[in-house]
Design a protein that fits this description.
Layout lengths: L5 E4 L4 E8 L1 E4 L2 E14 L4 E13 L4 E8 L7 H8 L1
Parallel strand pairs: 1-3, 2-4, 3-4, 4-5, 5-6
């Protein structure tokens, strides 16, 4: 499934496969590859297994998140310039 819109997987929803979306809110089960351009919101009733790529991630306590996660757009070595300035 590919869309630039928002994907909502309800509490009783089950999604297996590859998904590329603009935003996602998960309350049910997602298994597979999930690529979210902006915000992935994982609610306390959710279960995610597989591979996740997203820019922003929100996980409520109680959610099951058994996935590898890559944060897109994250700058690496952000602490390095601050550490160098202290020297």
């Amino acid at each position: 499934m590919i869309t630039t819109g928002k994907l909502v997987v309800g509490e009783k929803g089950v999604l297996n496969g590859t998904v590329k979306v603009g935003n996602a809110e998960v309350l049910g089960v997602v298994t597979g590859d999930l690529e979210v351009k902006d915000l992935l919101s994982i609610k306390k009733t959710a279960r995610i297994e597989g591979n996740v790529k997203t820019k922003k991630l929100s996980v409520e306590p109680g959610a099951v998140f058994n996935a590898t996660c890559e944060m897109q757009g994250a700058k690496t070595n952000q602490a390095a310039p601050a550490a160098a300035a202290k020297k």
